[in-house]
Amino acid sequence: MSGSETPRPRVPTGIAGLDEMLGGGFPRGHVVLVTGLPGTGKTCLGLQFLLSGVAAGEKGVFLSLEEDTPQLLETARQFKWPVDAAVEKDRLKIVRLDPRETRQSLHRVQGELGAELSKLKADRIVVDSVSLLNMLSDDEAGRRATLFALAGACRASGATALLTAEADPRHPEVSRDGLSEYVSDGVLVLGYSTAPDGHRVGLALRILKMRRTSHARTVQPYSIGPTGIVVDAKAVDFGAG
Amino acid sequence: MSGSETPRPRVPTGIAGLDEMLGGGFPRGHVVLVTGLPGTGKTCLGLQFLLSGVAAGEKGVFLSLEEDTPQLLETARQFKWPVDAAVEKDRLKIVRLDPRETRQSLHRVQGELGAELSKLKADRIVVDSVSLLNMLSDDEAGRRATLFALAGACRASGATALLTAEADPRHPEVSRDGLSEYVSDGVLVLGYSTAPDGHRVGLALRILKMRRTSHARTVQPYSIGPTGIVVDAKAVDFGAG
Amino acid sequence: MSGSETPRPRVPTGIAGLDEMLGGGFPRGHVVLVTGLPGTGKTCLGLQFLLSGVAAGEKGVFLSLEEDTPQLLETARQFKWPVDAAVEKDRLKIVRLDPRETRQSLHRVQGELGAELSKLKADRIVVDSVSLLNMLSDDEAGRRATLFALAGACRASGATALLTAEADPRHPEVSRDGLSEYVSDGVLVLGYSTAPDGHRVGLALRILKMRRTSHARTVQPYSIGPTGIVVDAKAVDFGAG
Amino acid sequence: MSGSETPRPRVPTGIAGLDEMLGGGFPRGHVVLVTGLPGTGKTCLGLQFLLSGVAAGEKGVFLSLEEDTPQLLETARQFKWPVDAAVEKDRLKIVRLDPRETRQSLHRVQGELGAELSKLKADRIVVDSVSLLNMLSDDEAGRRATLFALAGACRASGATALLTAEADPRHPEVSRDGLSEYVSDGVLVLGYSTAPDGHRVGLALRILKMRRTSHARTVQPYSIGPTGIVVDAKAVDFGAG
Amino acid sequence: MSGSETPRPRVPTGIAGLDEMLGGGFPRGHVVLVTGLPGTGKTCLGLQFLLSGVAAGEKGVFLSLEEDTPQLLETARQFKWPVDAAVEKDRLKIVRLDPRETRQSLHRVQGELGAELSKLKADRIVVDSVSLLNMLSDDEAGRRATLFALAGACRASGATALLTAEADPRHPEVSRDGLSEYVSDGVLVLGYSTAPDGHRVGLALRILKMRRTSHARTVQPYSIGPTGIVVDAKAVDFGAG
Amino acid sequence: MSGSETPRPRVPTGIAGLDEMLGGGFPRGHVVLVTGLPGTGKTCLGLQFLLSGVAAGEKGVFLSLEEDTPQLLETARQFKWPVDAAVEKDRLKIVRLDPRETRQSLHRVQGELGAELSKLKADRIVVDSVSLLNMLSDDEAGRRATLFALAGACRASGATALLTAEADPRHPEVSRDGLSEYVSDGVLVLGYSTAPDGHRVGLALRILKMRRTSHARTVQPYSIGPTGIVVDAKAVDFGAG
Prior knowledge:
Chain A is an alpha/beta fold. Chain A has helices at 16-22, 42-55, 69-78, 83-88, 102-110, 113-120, 130-135, 140-157; strands at residues 10-11, 26-27, 31-36, 60-64, 92-96, 124-128, 160-168, 171-175, 186-194, 200-210, 219-225, 228-231. In chain A, the strands form two sheets. In chain A, strands 3, 4, 5, 6, 7, 8, 9, 10, 11 and 12 form a ten-stranded mixed β-sheet that branches. The first copy, chain A, has a two-stranded antiparallel sheet with strand order 1-2. In chain A, a hairpin with an 8-residue loop joins strand 10 and strand 11 (219-225). The termini of chain A are far apart. In chain A, 54% of the residues are buried. Residues 237-241 of chain A have low confidence and may be disordered.
């Protein structure tokens, strides 16, 4: 229990504009939830976060529930990120949790995953997505146990973790399960900015919560371009709902 | 695990304006969800997609849960598409899954369908509709297993697949089951454009998500004319809700 | 499996303005759903459809779940339709399915109804209402089986069928059960037009979906006058929601 | 099965403005549902309907689930209606169904009530309220059976019946149970007119549905004065929702 | 069964402006529901009602489910009401029903409470709150039985009773349980007035329903000041929703 | 049962602007609920409240369900609050209730917690959060028992307590469980102020309810700065919803 007031070191996200909003990046060791509607770039953000770490000499683990490894690699290649080199050099490890193998996947998350992650000595972890992980359990208690186990395993490993989650279409700033927010130190929302008449204008993100750091509360437009996610400088308003 | 960065070849949809929005067509091998309210042309889009493939020398399979084969053929003939020739030449195969034969249909999807589809060596598959497929199961776990099995069978076959789904009337950009989005690489929404006062103006579509390719995010008006779906050049705004 | 591209012959609805919107009437053999809030004239439309057929020398069957035969006849007489003559000449047959005799009614629909309808050699069938039919089953699976059996019996008989359904008050363009749309080739919505401030202006209908034919997508005002439903020429806007 | 086209005789409601909207009153023998939020005068309308019949030499029955007989009489006396004389002369009979005696009340409605009502030879029946009747059953099937039995008993008795029901606060034109509309020949809604900014302006009623008669579709302001309900001449707009 | 048309005597509420809206006070013997969101002064209104009776020589009973006796007394003292004197002189009796002692509390309400209340010979009764009473039962049937028993006990005692209830946040004019309105002769809503743009302006109350008396239907601003609730003279509009 | 009318002494919150709204602070011994959406500073407010007490020579207990002790200390250090000194001098005690140890945590709250808290002789208690505490129970009855036990233990200890709760995203002024309001003497809402077009403008708080004291009903902007929460002087409007 140290009395030091040194703030946590930051883990740059690989997206300059977002790092600026965060005061340098995610606080190291945080579990950060990224919620968003389909097509807002959650998987892309996760890959970008890991490969940015690889470029800085760090190690990353991608826990994939949504896509098989070849598809995931292809997504990364599309942005010309050196994903194959990273995998070959053992700087990036893709762990596939098949949602069709319900029991095995659940047992793994609630059981050996903690040891696995610690052994991998990763600096960064991405779980894509906790929404699909939640579907493996048929009751609230099972979902809760799984999520707590997952977050606990991430924290125990010492890595900085990013969990993706589908947004609730009725409340796009809330995850579908309504639980993931409880296990996270921060919440990043990928969504749309809206004009006063309610029409969607473009992609925009907002940091809803980030423990142990001050952060921008503006809504920042972003785009998914040929080199990944780029956050614009100009802030916009989110619609109220 | 190839390091090649060649983007996936594209599968033209048979609708020029839509291909343009997609940068040439659906990425080959993708499972694409088409959601829409009743009467927005989901079945028509599916048939058009298959017959466009037939015209290019490809083979298509239409898995029909909603309509019997004669009705489906009639729908295609209405647009003067050479559907009978395609069936005769074995370029188009219509597979009827009768929703009244619940158990058999479910067993087939979760069992032999994968082998069937692979044996057919189809380039394109349409499933019309996963909403009706979902109704065959009485619990969430059954629906999930069926959807994953279906998507897995489509992917394993190597074909590019298009799944249609009813939109949730409360959130017309979301499928009724709220699950189909999870098994899909892309989501195409057929709906309506709305005037600022909320009145519906006309049919309009939007690509909500398409993995492994950049795509237009505009809302494009379209119509269902005597030769099928035609996407207009001019983009419009979707209503917010 | 004929290669003929002759479009389906049309069955005039008995309402000139509606026939125009449909390009001549309902496609023969279609099962068409008519949804609407209470008091929008669903039963009236059904009777008008049948008696228009009688006037053209056709035979009609009215499957009544909501009203007893005398009340139904009285409703028709109010519009001065020659309903008694039609019944006497065996051109119109009213079949009463009593919703209080739950089991018998369900067994009949799921069992002998198909043979009954075929034996009657009707050209037109009306079922008023599938909402009440749905109430006879206590679970989703039962409702689904009943609806599929009903639609199957109608289609097998060769007649053109019109099913009425209560609209969901939250989404007046959707049936209360949310299932009836799946067994129908077309959906006709009876509702209200609304002023920009959301106030109801008057009765208005819209063809939401009609397979195997192009159709108007406008919202057309109508009234229930002394001779039945009359559709106005001038189109209006439906409210968005 | 008479071929006569004589319209049903009318039963004046006791409220001049409402009779005018109905073309003379309720069609004789109809079961009419009156839905409304608390405090809109449903019980008052029921008593006024009965006492108007008494004044015309008819006999009325009030089936009370909400209030005990003394309270009900007091309510009527407040409007200076000769309710005590009516009871003494056997022109008005108050039947109390105590909602605390669940089983007995349900058995009575589903059993002997039909015979009771027929024996009473009433011209008019009021049931206040079916919402409370519905609460006696714990499942949908029980509520449905009770409602059908009640409506059947009313119809079999030959009287004109008025059923009151609480409105759903989310959809003030729909009854809370969503079932009562199915057993009724007509629906009368007691509610509020609203200004364009959504504020309630005053009490207003609308005839939503009335079988076998044309009727006004306007929204008519009314008030509950010292002599009961009075409907104003000037129509107003209801809010949309 | 008296034929007297003398209106019920009134029980002044202790709040001048409210008495004016009611034409003198609550009709004696009524069970009146007071619904409101948290912080709108429901407990305060209940205490004020009882102490106003005490000042007029009447006796009051406060059935407290929310607060312990000392806290309740403290609340009253804050307004400088002579609550301690009232308790000492046996003009005010506080009965604590501890919601943690679920079974005992339920048995008491459904059993001996009627006799207890009658023995106490109170002129006024307050129950604070029926929302907490409802929570003691785990099913709808239990809640209904408890509420009917409570209202029956109040009525049998001859006192005028005031029941407080939490408002449904989605429909602030409806109680959370949606049942309490059925056992009440009147409904008083404590809420907020809203500006045209939907912002809350200040506290405001409305009489939604009051049997056996005419009453104001305006929305009246009020405040909770150092001497309790004060109703302003000027009426305002409630928001629609 | 004292007749003294001395108002309860106040417990300053550590936030000058908030103390002003409360007339000096929370009434001593109150259980106050703080609800808010993620990222509105609930944990920060709790820590600030405790450390403000420590600075005044009081003792505080932090019951943490959301974060482990080291993370919590780090959060406090970030604001340069002397949290380590407080822990060392035994003026601040952090009690960790691990939500993964469901049974033990529940037994503790429902069992020995009361004695524990009393033994600690704390002046101030914070529970962060009751939302997570609620998740430990799988049914409403369990949640209710736990909440009542917790509030009872806090009250019995004589301390002033602050409970944090997640807001319901549909109704940001209501806690997610909808129960916590029942065990609290006051409700403080942390949320956003909104512009007339519905866009969020900035953080803003409101005192919804505070028993036994008058309080400001304005909406006050606040910010989370380098020294903790600061409430601005200028009041703003909350959005209606």
